[in-house]
């Protein structure tokens, strides 16, 4: 027998009887109120009490309500709620109450709807951008078939824009969009489309605050509008790393229930000129080359990354340059931790709230670290970058909102060793536990490729390495000698940067998503506490 009641409901309560339990009860049905309990549910949650017949034990469960509606001319009420399925997927489930009294039925519907409307964190008006060309080009269909019907049921009004060209969404957000009319912005597409939304919103917010995005030292204003991602791209790592799955229905439900997940954003400058923001991967060398090569193969869809990945793995280029960084101090957590950033993360809670104090400290503290060398890859992961290709991500212990980025340096090594490193992204082994890989949790870093270094710096390199005798060889490799130097580009969240010498700074919690971080099974809000009746 299942009983359902609203513990703190002003309209009283009821028991829900499961169909088939008793002869003549074909539908879910409610009866009189059971004894009150001392527990109270979170907002928007419904309490289901389940009595196990043999043990006479009550099991209780909080459910996150989605919507309520009458069915069959007032004789039934359908209550929809979030049901958690395997692998972090959410689905919309419903129970139907029957009641012969139409007036009582209406009062239940009214009371539940009122309670839902009182949850102010839920969005009512959304601005939606659909990239029809992302991933497998299914963005429009996915939105119309899977997402729009849910938004309609939740009484969310939408303004939908199907983009007509790259940067359409970014430019619309920067100047034209009437942002006051909305409670959030949703992008239907991949990481590149999300990046457009981020750029548009951050830019607009800084302009509204009269801040200069070209200054790398500016303390930026956080964006107030939350961003939702309906995954329809090729990697979708931001959705995967904040929700735990790339599933449009799950993401739509996180938007409907009004989740909020702050996220760090890196600003990237070149000579005091703003270039881009990065939220996931900023990668030079291997990932830069994979992206450059894969852009020419866009027609292949998501599989282009595997082709280009294999090609660049076989090409096996290495790059020389200097990385200087400011290590994150006064924070808890390291990139080698076993713990992961999950919903309600205590590391983010500890490190996140005081980013400005830390930034001030670093501005007056110039004793950063410097590493010169030959690298296969230089990656900065501001979050784990988990995605279906690598479910634990590039930096499995990175945090979404701790104000730091993990700087991963993969030094020149053999193809075999690099393959070992890459393979470890896909299994349980530690990809950092190799003598040619190092990882640092940082708040700021700079990179200067060797071909951009001044001649005096280059000479200093040679002196340091005690290799003056090979100066002639180095000189032939220098651009001034007319030879093409081997250099890469930066992959910035799937976009290629126009400069290679860059200055990167983390801005703690600059944006917010309609997400809650990946849930551990034990932190599900559904409680199943047995208690005797
Ligand atoms: C042997 C298997 C090794 C598999 C190693 C997989 C590591 C994958 C790590 C993926 C990290 C993605 C980070 C997210 C970046 C996004 O902001 C960006 C925009 O969406 N996506 C990419 O740049 C897209 C980047 C996609 C990179 C794909 C790299 C594929 C490497 C394949 C190497 C094959 C070697 C085979 C030798 C026999
Ligand atoms: N209408 C459009 N026509 C062409 N390009 C567009 C359009 N709208 C957006 N874009 C661009 O398409 C690029 C790729 O889009 P998106 O990120 O959605 O898919 P993806 O690259 O396949 O996936 P991922 O970024 O997850 O790897 C983005 O950089 C975006 O600027
Ligand atoms: Ca971070």
TrEMBL record:
Top-rank lineage group of the source organism: Eukaryota
InterPro entries, per the entry: ATP-NAD_kinase_N, CERK_C, CERK_PH, Diacylglycerol_kinase_cat_dom, Lipid_Phosphate_FormReg, NAD/diacylglycerol_kinase_sf
A biological process from GO: ceramide metabolic process
Any GO CC annotation of this UniProt entry: membrane
SUPFAM superfamilies for the chain: NAD kinase/diacylglycerol kinase-like (SSF111331)
Domain DAGKc, first and last residues per copy: 121-272
GO MF annotation list: ceramide kinase activity
PROSITE patterns: DAGK
Listed PANTHER family: CERAMIDE KINASE, SPHINGOSINE KINASE
The protein's name in its UniProt record: Ceramide kinase
């Amino acid at each position: 027998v299942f009983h359902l009641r609203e513990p703190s409901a002003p309209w009283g309560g009821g028991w829900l009887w499961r169909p088939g339990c008793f002869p003549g009860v074909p539908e879910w049905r409610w009866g009189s109120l059971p004894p009150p309990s001392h527990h109270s549910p979170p907002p928007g949650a419904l309490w289901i009490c389940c009595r196990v017949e043999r043990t006479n034990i009550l099991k209780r469960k909080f459910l996150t309500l989605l919507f309520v509606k009458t069915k069959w001319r007032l004789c039934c009420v359908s209550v929809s709620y979030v049901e958690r399925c395997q692998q972090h997927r959410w689905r919309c489930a419903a129970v139907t109450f029957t009641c012969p009294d139409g007036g009582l039925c209406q009062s239940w519907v009214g009371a539940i709807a009122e309670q839902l409307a009182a949850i102010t964190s839920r969005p009512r008006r959304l601005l939606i951008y659909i990239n029809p060309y992302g991933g497998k080009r299914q963005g429009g269909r996915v939105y119309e078939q899977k997402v729009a019907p849910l938004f309609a049921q939740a009484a969310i009004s939408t303004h939908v824009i199907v983009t007509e060209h790259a940067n359409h969404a970014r430019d619309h957000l920067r100047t034209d969009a009437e942002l006051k009319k909305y409670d959030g912005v949703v992008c239907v597409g991949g990481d590149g489309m999300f990046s457009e939304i981020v750029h548009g919103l951050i830019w607009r917010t800084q302009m509204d605050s009269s801040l200069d995005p070209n200054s790398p030292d500016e303390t930026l204003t956080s964006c107030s509008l939350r961003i939702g991602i309906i995954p329809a791209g090729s990697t979708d790592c931001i959705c995967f790393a904040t929700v735990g799955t790339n599933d449009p229905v799950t993401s739509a439900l996180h938007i409907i229930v009004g989740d909020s997940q702050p996220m760090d954003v890196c600003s990237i400058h070149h000579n005091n000129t703003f270039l881009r923001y990065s939220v996931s991967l900023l990668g030079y060398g291997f990932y830069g080359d994979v992206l450059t090569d894969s852009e020419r193969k866009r027609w292949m869809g998501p599989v282009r990354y595997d082709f280009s990945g294999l090609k660049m793995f076989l090409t096996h280029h290495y790059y020389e340059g200097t990385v200087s960084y400011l290590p994150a101090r006064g924070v808890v957590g390291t990139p080698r931790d076993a713990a992961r950033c999950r919903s309600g993360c205590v590391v983010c809670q500890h490190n996140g709230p005081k980013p400005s104090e830390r930034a001030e400290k670093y501005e007056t503290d110039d004793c950063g670290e410097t590493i010169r060398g030959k690298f296969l890859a230089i990656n900065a992961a501001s979050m784990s970058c988990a995605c279906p290709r690598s479910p634990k991500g590039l930096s499995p212990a990175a945090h979404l909102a701790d104000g730091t980025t993990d700087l991963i340096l993969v030094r020149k090594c053999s193809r075999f060793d690099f393959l070992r490193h890459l393979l470890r992204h896909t299994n349980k082994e530690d990809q950092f536990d190799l003598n040619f890989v190092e990882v640092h949790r940082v708040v700021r870093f700079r990179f200067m490729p060797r071909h951009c270094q001044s001649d005096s710096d280059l000479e200093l390199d040679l002196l340091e390495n005690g290799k003056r005798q090979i100066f002639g060889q180095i000189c032939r490799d220098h651009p001034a000698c007319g030879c093409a130097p081997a250099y890469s580009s930066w992959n910035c969240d799937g976009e290629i940067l126009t400069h290679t010498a860059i200055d990167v700074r983390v801005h703690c919690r600059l944006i917010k998503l309609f997400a809650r971080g990946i849930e551990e099974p034990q932190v599900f809000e559904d409680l199943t506490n047995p208690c005797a009746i």
